[in-house]
Amino acid sequence: MRHDSPYFFCGIGGSGMLPLAMILRAKGIEVAGSDRALDQGRTPEKFAFLRAQGITLYPQDGSGVTRSEQIVVASAAVEETVPDVVAARAAGAHLVTRAELLAQLFNAAPTGIGVAGTSGKSTTTGMIGWILAATEYDPTVMNGAVMKNFVTGSTPFASALVGASDIFVSEVDESDGSIARYMPRIAVVNNISLDHKSMDELRALFRDFVAKADVAILNLDNVETAALAGIARRTITYSVSDPRADVFAADLVPAPDGMTFIVRSDGMSVHFKLHVPGRHNVFNALAAIAAAGAVGVTHEEAAAALERFAGIRRRLEVVGQTNGITVIDDFAHNPDKIAATLDTLHDFPGRLLVLFQPHGYGPLQKMKNEFVAGFANKLAPDDVLIVSEPAYFGGTTERSVSSADIVAGVAAQGRTAFAPGTRNQSGQMLVECARPGDRIVVMGARDDTLSAFAAEILDALVK
Questions:
Q1: What's the rounded Cα separation, in Å, for the pair 91 and 17?
Q2: What is d(CA 158, CA 161) in angstroms, rounded to the nearest whole number?
Q3: Which of 172, 220, 288, 359 is surrounded by the most beta carbons within 10 Å?
Q4: Contact (Cβ atoms closer than 8 angstroms) between residue 440 and residue 457
Q5: Which of 375, 371, 377, 358 is closest to 443 using CA atoms?
Q6: Contact (CB, 8 A) for 382 and 351
Q7: How many CB atoms lie within 10 A of CB 282?
Q8: Nearest to 416 by CA among 428, 400, 435, 429
Q9: Which is it for the CA torsion 82, 85, 89, 91, positive or negative?
């Protein structure tokens, strides 16, 4: 990357863009950007935060890209017709993708810890970052979600942390194939399952990622991930079912607000307590414990840090309670994440009212059968599923599969499901269905307004 060039982020408010912009700004680099959400008046508090960091914001009309020395950062999915891209071509500015820039930063760090996998990346990245920060390793952390431990009054959108050491912790994405760009010293793979690419493509991408690492941290309880053992120079395995793993968790005890378990490793046992619920978070914690251990953190130090881990925003986040009804905001958007959320909530009594906003028409088309099977298998007989129209913020997209198709498939397998239409219509149905003892779960990704929508549902329940 170029430290003496100004950077312009197209879509600067995005979950992958904002932390990158913050890391560059913290290094003293001139940063500006635009965002369609800014133009549409969505999430104004986020853009006020960016301005407070000294970042200049422009409408997404190309007016912010006028100099050849600018480096314009855009998502790989951004179309050539977007005004900022058109302006960059006209001005002779250099265009890079978000993944290219992140890989440049990551690969330049002597100790790059890359967190990969279909599910759990953000939480595992946050856990590793918090353990290393709490043990004074002073890492830089790039996350796709807000890490609550690093939130302050002046940094409400703490999805990045800039440290002074040579450690760079980042989640890395396989959905666009950009995982191939990263050269990790420590490669973490939580799990591998169908999401954005075919399984054959995913196997090749993850295999190459692990092969480049000095140390691979692998989940033995995921068949696809376990198959990667022995590829890296050194492998550290973790498991909740196989005591032969290098890091093994036993005696898992769930609670509504967390988990307790024992970690057995190298003949020693250490007690762990998490304040984030769910068996899936034990897997995330094991990956974090192993990765931090590869840097030099003891299990006792990791246990002390993780007991103070506050979690990641929009991961089973309780918005509030009223009239005996709990409202929960959750990022689940693919079959694995949805299953983990529903399994966690079903550990405790109460009907679930799930409002699922698909994160695009493309994922609906690719994973239609998996969505249907996932909801049909994981919803309890008295649960209710409401699927709103998919998130859509412009551009061209194939709409051959709709929310109604998912609902029809789930209903055909004996579960209660509806597709009322818009999100507001779906929310109204949700409020009308709710009764004391219920837990309402607002599920979805790629739409920052879902959290505000969950808060609106809570307000509506009070009335």
A1: 22
A2: 7
A3: 288
A4: yes
A5: 358
A6: yes
A7: 21
A8: 429
A9: positive
E strand or H helix at 285, and its extent? helix 279-295
CA distance readout (Å), 75 to 82, 136, 284, 398: 11, 33, 27, 19
Question: Cα–Cα–Cα angle for 376, 381, 383, nearest 5°?
Answer: 85
For residue 174, give Cα distances in angstroms to 86, 184, 292, 349: 27, 14, 23, 36
Neighbouring C-beta atoms of residue 380, cutoff 10 Å: 14
* 138 torsion bin: left (phi>0), alpha (psi -120 to 50), beta (else): left
Q: How far apart are CA 295 and CA 284, in angstroms?
A: 17
Give CA–CA dist 265/271, Å, rounded.
12
Residue 410 tokens read as 């789930």
Q: Which helix (H) or strand (E) holds 217?
A: strand 215-219
State in Å, rounded, how far the first CA of the chain is from the last one: 53
Q: Please name the helix (run of DSSP H) or strand (run of DSSP E) that holds residue 27, with its range, or none.
A: none
Q: How many CB atoms are located within 10 Å of the residue 397 CB?
A: 11
- pLDDT at res. 275: 95
Read off the pLDDT of residues 272-298 as tens digits, 9 standing for 90 and up.
999 999 899 999 999 999 999 999 999
Q: What is the mean pLDDT of the chain?
A: 92
Tokens of 319: 């918005």
Instruction: Round the CA-based radius of gyration of the chain to a whole number and report it.
Output: 22
- pTM for the model stands at 0.88
Residue 177: CB atoms within 10 A of its CB come to: 16
Q: Do the beta carbons of residue 250 and residue 236 sit within 8 Å?
A: no
Distance CA 33, CA 64 (A): 7
